[in-house]
């Protein structure tokens, strides 16, 4: 049912209300994805959020062929990749992060500082340890007021601060949630046995699952359950995380512990290899 929106869910009656009528179900699978985080300080009429093809095409059209002053708020994977691409294309780019360096929640400080240096060499201005109080219109286009009290102007402002799950339907069905819809790790069933969920909208052991790689295996486990076929169950493993970058391509594998130390295996101007270990066993590897 294309161009149809789910607007209500009654789990007791097993009915899903949509903009094209109400559907009855025996089993229901929620695969609603996630949406960009929306904050009052980043009003939608002045700040771009890129999570759909239409939004990307709209941003490309506004940027046009001339050099622009672009401010990117949030230095995660998407923010870093956008900043590099925009600076390489000749734009005046400022990247704002609340951490001490880009990708702070993923990278050890040594790798994060190298990435920061290379982004700056690429032409990106990086403002660290800062959040945005408000974005407001100005004669120059937009003015970004920072928590430090400083200001910066931009023609285009892009928010890449992360994603959140729309839990409206889940709450209507009284499903258990924690950042996302809580599911059983093996069956992908929610707290209601007739409702499954997969992809960006779920929470596994209290953690969201925002990556494409596990979705096929999740769908396979659910399909076997719906058809009553034997299956070993979904087995979650952390997918590799990659920064698609020309100045510092990197790959993070395993389950890094933010509280544990990283060991430097190799560090040259051309290669960085770091590892985390627990009990002598490698639990996470970073290659850059």
UniProtKB/TrEMBL annotation:
Q: List keywords of the entry alphabetically.
A: FAD, Flavoprotein, Oxidoreductase
* Family matches, as InterPro entries: FAD-bd_OxRdtase, FAD/NAD-bd_sf, FAD/NAD-binding_dom
Q: Cite the FAD/NAD(P)-binding domain residue spans from the record.
A: 17-202
So which residues are the signal peptide here? none
Its EC top class is oxidoreductase
| SUPFAM superfamilies with a match to the protein in the record | FAD/NAD(P)-binding domain
Q: What's the EC number here?
A: 1.18.1.1
Q: Which cofactor does it need?
A: FAD
GO MF terms listed in the record are:
rubredoxin-NAD+ reductase activity
Q: What is the similarity comment for this entry? A: Belongs to the FAD-dependent oxidoreductase family.
What name goes with this protein? Rubredoxin-NAD+ reductase
In which organism is this protein found?
Answer: Acetobacter senegalensis
């Amino acid at each position: 049912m294309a161009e149809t929106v789910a607007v209500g869910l009654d789990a007791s009656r097993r009915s899903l209300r949509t903009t094209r009528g109400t559907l009855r179900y025996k089993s229901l699978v929620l695969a609603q994805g996630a949406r960009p985080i929306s904050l009052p300080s980043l009003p939608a009429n002045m700040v771009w959020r890129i999570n759909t093809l239409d939004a990307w095409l709209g941003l490309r059209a506004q940027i046009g062929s001339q050099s622009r002053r672009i401010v990117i708020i949030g230095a995660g994977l998407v923010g870093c990749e956008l900043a590099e691409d925009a600076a390489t294309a000749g734009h005046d780019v400022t990247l704002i992060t609340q951490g001490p360096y880009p990708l702070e929640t993923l990278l050890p400080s040594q790798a994060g500082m190298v990435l920061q240096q290379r982004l700056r060499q690429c032409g990106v201005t990086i403002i660290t340890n800062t959040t945005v109080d408000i974005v407001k219109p100005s004669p120059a286009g937009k003015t970004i007021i920072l928590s430090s009290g400083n200001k910066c102007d931009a023609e285009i402002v892009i928010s890449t601060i992360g994603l959140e799950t729309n839990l409206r339907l889940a709450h209507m069905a009284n499903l258990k949630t924690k950042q996302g819809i809580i599911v059983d790790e093996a069956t992908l069933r929610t707290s209601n046995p007739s409702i499954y969920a997969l992809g960006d909208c779920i929470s596994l052991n209290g953690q969201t699952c925002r990556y494409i790689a596990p979705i096929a295996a999740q769908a396979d486990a659910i399909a076997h359950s719906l058809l009553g076929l034997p299956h070993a169950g979904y087995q979650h493993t952390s997918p590799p995380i990659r920064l698609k970058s020309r100045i510092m391509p990197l790959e993070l594998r395993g389950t890094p512990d933010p509280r544990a130390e990283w060991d430097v295996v190799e560090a040259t101007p051309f290669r960085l290899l770091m590892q985390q270990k627990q009990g002598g066993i490698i639990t996470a590897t970073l290659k850059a």
